[in-house]
Amino acid sequence: MSLLNVQDIHVYYGSIYAIKGISFSVEEGEIVSLIGANGAGKSTTLKTISGLMRPRTGKIEFAGADITAMKAHKIVAAGLAQCPEGRRVFSRMTVQENLEMGAYTRENAEMEKSMEDVYYRFPRLKERYKQEAGTLSGGEQQMLAMGRAMMSRPKLLMLDEPSMGLAPLLVEEIFEIIGELNRSGTTVLLVEQNAQMALSISNRGYVLETGRIVISGTGDELLRDDKVRRAYLGG
Amino acid sequence: MRDKYKRIPIPVRYLINALLCAAFLVIVQSFISGGSISRYQSGILVQIGVYIIMAVSLNIATGYLGQLPLGHAGFMSIGGYSCAIFMMRLADKMGVETADLLIPGLIFGGCVTALFGLIIGIPALRLKGDYLAIVTLGFAEIIRVFMLNIDSLLGFKFTGGAGGLTGIPRYSNFLNVFISVILVCFFVHTMMKSRHGRAILAIRDNEIAAEASGVNISYYKTLAFVISAFFAGIGGGLYAGSIGVMDPTKFGFMESIEILVMVVLGGMGSMLGSISAATVITVVNQVLTSLSEYRMVIYALLLIVVMMFRPKGLFGTYDFSLSHVMERLFNRDFPKRKSKGARK
């Protein structure tokens, strides 16, 4: 049984028909990418899964339970964490306090261990644990947002455009960390515009176009696919 | 390196603060009974206490939750009327002194106000920014007009209508107002340090990130708003007992703005800021009563100057902590920590 199973969801922004029937699944231990151009519906799909938006029809199952109508905070507690687009950190809290917020749904006793784990993966955050998050650089804020999502020890971690607006070297670093996270047992659902990077670490990928999945396959297949290459990989 | 930094254990901190408060209370109280502080002056002290409660309570919704409600005077009015009417009626029935019913009266006033806070908060908090401001502003106006007209409309003798509710025993004095201020500040302080407070601050900083971290946004927004209303009701109840008259026209838009000015001037999210700004503005108001027409001009200028030179308010989010100052003194040889300022 799949960890996450999305069945034919249709999502509207008011009267705008944004997602026109998407179905896909994420198996335990995988990295799965959703790629596509601006406005294809990638972020909307993530928001719908994490409960920030509601599908008009369709069904979302997570770890065997129906989460379609569940509230966002309960979905987090169920083990599905989202790292929202655009480095949304708590800018007036310190790095440490941000991470503590990530463990909001958990017992305090378990927090210390997760904190150590996050600091181990992001040594730069440890150096700045007392600093206000708003004063961090863009890359550090992205790391903090990811670290915060990891603090809830999710079964499935959803990352929305983790490479957005970052320098190429930092992008590589972030993707390396995503790979390591996955190897240590976290399932990852990745939404990216940087298709090359995303597909190269993914087990499988789905290409979205104007609210529909147009191509799907393994990461390597998609990287070699002519249509994908022309549209998203620049040749 | 954090381990070497000597810290004062929390019970000791509370004890030190409690002793200081008690000392302050005893000193001022002895001045009052000794006659060094006149009745007029102790009246001002009571007003300061009332407005500290108003500012601290508004700060929950404005500074900590990050919303902009403009109807705090409406809550003050509800609290004042319900507390005063409850105490006067009950004292009549039971044949006791009105002042003896202060604690149940304040709790009743607070609860009625909190109920209104809940009723207005649930729909209003779905809105953001300007819209929330407009809805709460409208709500406060409705309260004002309601209190003015309800008696003549229904033939009750309840609120006293346009003439105001008169003959309220002056049950507020320095002692009970001071204790109320301490209790309110203590409660708000501990709440904001708890897990619940952290959730409220997270909503202020970034709503989407808070939701993604598993914070129940609508619950905590409503909770903060209701607690803010509850304490505003208590402030209103003490106000009624300090003036002896509830005049519905007092609780208009200008009153809400005045409380908001205190919060903004002191620094949104700083309790020290709310307390000091409430103190200064109340004193200035008393001094400038002869210039009452120009008061709003002075406020406006004051706000403009503060916003130009200190947009975060006088204290920003800084909160004074005696224990931290003492800790720093004990650890003088210790290298100074990088982050000064707000430690919540």
Textual characterization of the structure:
The complex is a heterodimer of chains A (235) and B (344). In chain A, strand 4 and strand 5 form a beta hairpin. Chain A contains 10 helices and 10 strands. Chain A has a single domain, classed as Rossmann fold. In chain A, helix 3 (95-102) runs parallel beside helix 6. Chain A is an alpha/beta fold. The model of chain A has no long low-confidence stretch (mean pLDDT 91). Chain A has a 6-stranded mixed beta sheet with strand order 6-7-8-3-9-10, sandwiched between helices. In chain A, strands 2-1-4-5 form a 4-stranded antiparallel beta sheet, with helices on one face. Chain B is mostly helical and 344 residues long. Chain B has a domain at 41-252. Chain B is 70% helix and 0% strand. Chain B is built from 13 helices and no strands. In chain B, helix 10 (253-266) runs parallel beside helix 12. Chain B starts with 9 loop residues before the first helix and ends in a 14-residue tail after the last helix. In chain B, 43% of the residues are buried. Mean pLDDT of chain B is 87; it is low at 338-344. The interface between A and B is medium-sized, with 31 and 23 residues.
In short:
The complex is a heterodimer of chains A (235) and B (344). With 235 residues, chain A is of the alpha/beta class. In chain A, 38% of the residues lie in helices and 27% in strands.
